[in-house]
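Can you give me the bound-state structure? Components:
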Amino acid sequence: AQSVTQLGSHVSVSEGALVLLRCNYSSSVPPYLFWYVQYPNQGLQLLLKYTSAATLVKGINGFEAEFKKSETSFHLTKPSAHMSDAAEYFCAIQGAQKLVFGQGTRLTINP
Amino acid sequence: KAGVTQTPRYLIKTRGQQVTLSCSPISGHRSVSWYQQTPGQGLQFLFEYFSETQRNKGNFPGRFSGRQFSNSRSEMNVSTLELGDSALYLCASSLELAGALSSYNEQFFGPGTRLTVL
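Here's the bound-state model for the whole set.
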């Protein structure tokens, strides 16, 4: 069965600092991996996806993620945090007709 | 193109009642999935429908059911509501090519229905 694990349920960074949200996956087949963001009282918005093309994936709002097979990781980064980045972030892996999500990481931005 | 819409957005029910939630996918999308989101369990897959057929089901009791209509709109029903059913219910649709069961299909999520059971 495919799964993802997000390390850290809460991450706090200062405005302008590097954002690093960690995600490790487990899969017996080449994975399709996703990062979603959820703002309060809203649904999920796709930030970026890895579909076995380039290992460095660029997404919306300045986010990017690097697929590392040797480390089974797909960490999300952003060079400079903005107050508007405060939200919950979910890493997900595609299973059979479904997405399997990590537990989520709540990102707080300090002014 | 309009996104995924879910109705109602908010719902309050009492224990023992039943509830029906509705989801309209993006035009042309034939696959609709449902997820339950709670603070304790996170995001959990409920079921997925494609062309009016349920293809996959998560580990939920039989009180949770769903269906899909010929226009791809979907409904989910929860009978005999329990307090633990309070959650945000998210619907997602995807454009899936025929026969491409194992390929990548981007899912687009609706805003969710917030169900509170008292």
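A couple of observations. Chain A touches chain B through 21 residues (CB under 8 Å). The mean pLDDT of chain A is 94.
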